Fold this protein.
Amino acid sequence: MTLKRLTYNATARYTHDITTGFAGMRASQFHIRTTKETPNDAEIVSHQLMIRAGFIRRLGSGLYTLMPLGLRVVRKIEAIVRDEMNSAGAVELLMPSIQPAELWEESGRWEKFGPELLRIQDRHGRDYCLGPTHEEVITDIARRDIKSYRQLPLNFYQIQTKVRDEVRPRFGVMRSREFIMKDAYSFSLGEESLQACFDQMHTAYCNVFDRMGLEYRAVEADSGSIGGAQSREFHVLADSGEDAVVYATEGDYAANMEKAAVVCQTSRGDASESMATVDTPGVHTIAELSAKLDINETQCLKTLLVKGTTTAVVALVLRGDHQLNEVKAEHLDEVASPLTMADANDIKTAANCDAGSIGPVGLSIPVIADADAATMSNFVCGANENGKHLTGVNWGRDLAEPQIRDLRNVIEGDLNPMGTGTLKIVRGIEVGHIFQLGSAYSEAMGATVLDENGKPQVMQMGCYGIGVTRVAAAAIEQNNDAQGIIWPESIAPFEAVICPVNMVKSEAVQAAAEVLYQELKAAGIDVLFDDRPLRPGAMFADMELIGIPHRFVISDKLLANDEVEYRGRRDSESSVLSRSDVLTKLRK
Ligand code: ATP
Ligand code: MG
């Protein structure tokens, strides 16, 4: 009956996904290699499952082959990204991985980038790097090709292999040394136009991650030395994430930990105690100090000395239970960049003691206090003498009022800086980053256009990245169970799988499976026909590990009633469907 429906249909030839070219596969002609072993270095579930299910194979530290299953996922991610970039008016090109050092010297990054930049020489001894990103190359193209404001705005993108000699490659393709990134670079005349490009990319990124069915947040991020410029990171939420993401319980404020602003909630109490010196032999940390004196850490003041710009060192003080935010500290004019902790010699010179006994009383260097530290009264701090601390210390009485800045990481329960509700902290995996570069590169490299009045103007740039291979891993972190991966349909290596039971013994099963395979393919479904001579249990286990969203089982028993068995990858039980309802089920 069904056979007749499957007469050749000319349009069926074009029903496969034209963006990926994928239109179903027979397992016997594909390459599926699952394993029960979990590699020792695989700390997180996505890394373990990608290896066990045969999506990636390790070649060396931070170097992975995308096996056929893994490549299918990556191609589907790329197709979604490409579609959204094209819809947003971005134009695709492809730049080389190998980039001449001269360009990097022009931007100043040949010196600045550090060891993450993998540098190579050619046979003539000329210097090159393997591109970790492509601002220099694209700016070189823009300064040659874009001459008039009439050509703007313009947004170029590519999907390309990046190389970064990561200090600690780990988590498989989550942080590898070679990975696939979509990077886009917009060129505009004026900041308004840059903002419009940025907003457009923000929307495109939301569309991309929505289409992948991922739970994510777009958060404010630090824009480094480029003041005022906007920067947003897109994080997939997962407990294994390397980053802390801060968001408000009410309203839509969200930021990464580096950027999240603290609103001081306390006011200073009365100076009711007098200052006294106490012996604290062997006390070096806030924890030891609070234990020794039997006081709360909130009553202790922490003093850190860092290298300064106009003075050798600067004192940064925080409430004992708070953590220094290094990015906020680095932005202070008084503090040297990159942030560098004072060494033992510097500490001896400035405070005449070791690191565990420093306090702000009597120091003749700038003292910058976090806002919460500045509200403390009757506090305990180091006495600038080894083995001694001061108690009952008060600002303005025992030492000068400090300069007050936001210096600390937010903690759960802090006030939302936008005024509504409080802050919560979750873990996130950074999968994308959009950033206003302004004129940082275009100025250094002389990328100008003529404006309406024929005057040369430096172009405004934005850059926009998505970690394509990292997205695959992040999707698994968010979607897995004891049996394996649960792919979101839009990026699954196959949308559906047909599992025939004992096909070798039953011609009827074989014929029915073949018909269903052809039918699903013709309907444009990227279906896997598991025609391997495996027992059902082993076949099902493989398909669950690989994470295919929809499974159809065909057996003699089911065929007798013209039925198939269906199971969605998240379903706890299978259900029986009429054979004619298969396509309806999938279309739902
Ligand atoms: P991270 O803080 O994780 O190192 P980054 O700030 O260096 O990221 P960008 O330079 O903004 O990252 O790169 C754009 C995107 O490329 C990131 O959002 C991330 O998804 C991806 N990415 C960056 N480094 C790696 C890597 N080593 N392996 C895989 N993907 C990466
Ligand atoms: Mg990095």
